[in-house]
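User: I'm new to structure prediction. If I give you an amino acid sequence, what do you actually give back? Let's try with this one:
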Amino acid sequence: MRKLLMGAVVATVVSTLAVPVASAASSGGAGGAGGAGGPAGPGAGLRGQVGLSPEATTVPEFGNLTLTVDAHAAGRHGASGRATLQHEFFNPDGSWQGTVRLDVDVDCLAVTEDGATAAVTGTVRALTYDVPPGTPEQPRPSADWHPETGFSFPLDRPAASGSGSHPGTGSHPGTGSHPGTGTGTGGATGTVGARVGWSGVPNFNDPAAPPVAEKCVAPAADFYVVSGRYRLKR
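Assistant: Good question. You get back a string of structure tokens that encode the predicted 3D arrangement of the chain. For your 234 residues, that looks like this:
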């Protein structure tokens, strides 16, 4: 059993918000990513917003997990932009239980040698969470907690020329509108059914916790895309 965003960083203090779920894919499995990647190229960018699930369909008890990314290649080995992973949890009666948000400053946009996977990595800017009124205040990371984390995006679906912008998914409260996927050729998209990976983050309560991600390295795929899309433009 694997605990996702809330469980990965604050399970010991907010165990009621941690939702254990089976891992969607084992490392190196059918959804495995390609590992280290090279620069995506000048002018490359990856942008989109997707709803994620540990299974091929939505799992109500899992809550809403949403990944938003806007990454742009900068120089030979650098990149800029922001990625945000947000996990909303709900009680069995449907009432809101809590939300965890991870904001990441992008430092690399890479593509694996076989061209099958894009990697977006970066340092954690902030970990924040909201809980209902009356819930005890929870420990937070120290000001110098900025570990590396990473995401992988399969690129096995060619983008159509002139695809335009993609409307908001509307299925994840508080996530805002879906960013446009852009136009033109020379890119690849991922839509419902694609497999996206996340490396996780170290436990901030453990100063000796080892790194879980490397710059420009694509983690193995963990989740299914159940809504939205992303696009790599090159």
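You can read the tokens as a compact description of the fold. Here is one thing that stands out. Residues 1-32, 157-185 have pLDDT under 50 and may be disordered.
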